[in-house]
Design brief:
Elements lengths: L2 E2 L10 H7 L15 H21 L6 E4 L2 H15 L4 E4 L5 H12 L4 E4 L10 H10 L4 E5 L11 H10 L3 E5 L18 E5 L10 E5 L25 H16 L1 H20 L7 E2 L13 E7 L6 H7 L2 E2 L1 E4 L8 H4 L7 E7 L6 H17 L1 H4 L12
Parallel strand pairs: 1-11, 3-4, 3-5, 5-6, 6-7
Antiparallel strand pairs: 2-8, 7-8, 9-10, 10-13, 12-13
């Protein structure tokens, strides 16, 4: 039985998305920049996709630009803003995606900017008081903070950050890669200047995303060579991808409350099953255990270290896909886990759900984890292992 619980990395294509994409891989294959009828028909599809995305987010179509994914969008937002506004200071956190941290590190190395890191509490939440102090000292700055953390699921109060950004004349980029398609946005009543999305995070195709650029702003392009995307992003559009992105976001929003309620129940179910599994020493990273303070589809769990390999690899061996990182064998935890007040020598496993997962799958997962710990000689005789009678 194959079970996929790595939906924070990528998701399965929704059936409606496959149906929407197919005509643009077969019949409607013209270049949208071509002036003939076939090209105009394809360009109309791109324009309609733009209107769909904008309408769902409460933006105008002129504020939506299609990219190759969130990583490109992040680079465009950061580098484009630094260059367009000649900014020399950026505020971020130590648990951002590497697309943010490495882009800023490059600019810092080149002498373009100075980077300040906002304080986090022991669970990885942004200290808004410290953020305001940083803004008070550097009022014309770029804020780059994520909405939902991809590893521990923490949700950041981007409304409060946006208010602070306006107060101190700062520019605010919100990395919404992990929350797009899972949490509704209304950009008409938002202080976000730039945000990004990637289709494959919400049951769309890989290799396509978008960036929202508030109409009050402009960015210096990263890619030159054509007039596509109104001069903001040169290169022939990935038409099938763009159509698929718009359809995926539309489907996500259509059943948003229902889908997220189910995903929340899946998370709660896994937490309850682990609680009675008999495995001692389990703890949860960041706010991932909290339904209110984390994205519904991410649960980050720290397990006792095994003497016979890792939980992730042993689950993979029986057809269960999860992700994680281990400090057990000196490999080191991720930069996100290292920034938290977590116990050392634990294996961190990220379970990430989608609306296509089932409760029966989670039963199989917990059963597999129990068998892994039962068969580990060091764990089975240690204090970390309780009686498994309650699980049976």
């Amino acid at each position: 039985m194959e079970i996929y619980l790595d939906n924070a990395a990528t998701t399965a294509l929704a059936p409606e998305v496959i149906e929407a994409i197919l005509p643009f891989l077969t019949t409607h294959y013209a270049n949208p920049s071509s002036a003939h009828r076939a090209g105009r028909k394809v360009k109309d599809a791109v324009d309609q996709a733009r209107r769909t995305v904008a309408g769902l987010l409460g933006a105008s179509p002129e504020e939506i630009y299609f990219t190759a994914g969130a990583t490109e969008g992040i680079n465009l937002a950061l580098t484009g803003a630094i260059r367009a506004y000649e900014l020399n200071h950026v505020i971020t956190s130590r648990i951002e995606h590497k697309a943010v941290l490495q882009t800023l590190k490059r600019h810092e190395k080149e002498g373009d900017i100075e980077t300040s890191f906002v304080k986090l509490d022991e669970r990885g939440n942004v200290d808004l008081y410290h953020l305001e102090n940083l803004l008070r000292a550097n009022p014309r700055t770029l804020i780059a903070l994520m909405h939902g953390n991809n590893e521990i699921g923490n949700i950041t109060d981007i409304h409060a950050i946006g208010v602070l950004a306006r107060r101190y004349n700062a520019v605010f980029f919100a990395d919404t890669t992990q929350t797009m398609g899972k949490i509704a946005f209304d950009l008409q009543h938002s202080d976000i200047d730039f945000m990004v999305g990637s289709a494959h995070k919400f049951h769309g195709p890989k290799g396509v995303g978008f960036i929202y650029i508030n109409e009050k702003h402009e960015l210096k392009p990263l890619i030159y060579g054509g007039g596509q995307e109104r001069g903001q992003r040169a290169g022939t559009e990935n038409v099938a991808g763009v159509v698929g992105l718009a359809k995926a976001l539309e489907v996500s929003y259509r059943n948003l409350d229902e889908s997220q309620a189910k995903v929340c129940k899946l998370k709660q179910y896994l937490i309850s099953k682990l609680a009675i599994s008999g495995i001692g020493g389990i703890c949860y990273n960041g706010e991932s255990k909290s339904i209110e303070n984390s994205v519904p589809n991410v649960l980050s769990v720290s397990f006792p270290c095994l003497s016979s390999g890792s939980v992730v690899t042993q689950l993979d061996a029986v057809g269960i896909a999860v992700s994680g990182g281990s400090a057990c064998s000196g490999g080191g935890a991720s930069h996100v886990i290292q920034a938290l007040a977590c116990e050392a020598d634990k294996e961190n496993v990220r379970f990430s759900f989608s609306k296509f997962n089932t409760f029966e799958e989670l039963d199989h997962v917990v059963d597999a984890i129990v068998r892994i710990y039962e068969s580990d000689p060091a764990i089975a005789t240690s204090k970390a292992w309780k009686s498994i009678a309650s699980w049976a």
